[in-house]
Amino acid sequence: QVQLVESGGGLVQTGGSLRLSCAASGVHGSFKINAMGWYRQGSGSHRELVARMIFGGSTDYGDSVRGRFTISRDDVKNMVFLQMNNLRPEDTDVYYCNAGPYVIPIMNTWGQGTQVTVSS
């Protein structure tokens, strides 16, 4: 069973930077990761897209983070990263890693979440 473990959250001042990491374990056999990304809880009932990579396809960013955040991955280590620059108080949230064979995130595996807090 695939498990995702996030790290790198914390408290930072407005304008600061953080780098989130997510490591996938238990990836073997016929299980393929075709999408990895980051979502945050937001104020709605559904987690909102922060950034995601569809392998062999597109890289997508949420409108509010485009130009400030950068997603990257390490295929050898089955890891995905989120470099967050110029952080704002409204970026404060729990950030979740998502990975799996599917483009639709609810069909994939979620991490436990990591808290990011940006002070004004």
Summarize the structure.
The protein is mostly beta strands and 120 residues long. Helices cover 0% and strands 51% of the residues.
Task: Please explain how this structure is put together.
The strands form two sheets. Strands 2, 4, 5, 6, 9, 10 and 11 form a seven-stranded mixed sheet that branches. This protein has a four-stranded antiparallel sheet with strand order 1-3-8-7, with no helix packed on it. It has 120 residues and is an all-beta fold. 0% of the residues lie in helices and 51% in strands. It is built from no helices and eleven strands. The radius of gyration is 14 Å and the shape is globular. The mean pLDDT is 94.
How do the helices and strands line up, and which of them pair or pack?
Blueprint: E1 3-7, E2 10-13, E3 18-25, E4 35-40, E5 48-54, E6 59-61, E7 69-74, E8 79-84, E9 93-100, E10 109-110, E11 114-119
Parallel strand pairs: 2-11
Antiparallel strand pairs: 1-3, 3-8, 4-5, 4-9, 5-6, 7-8, 9-10, 9-11
Strand portion: over 45%
Judging from the principal axes of the Cα atoms, what is the shape?
globular
Strand/helix succession: EEEEEEEEEEE
| Global mean pLDDT | 94
Number of strand segments: 11
The chain-level structural class is: mainly beta
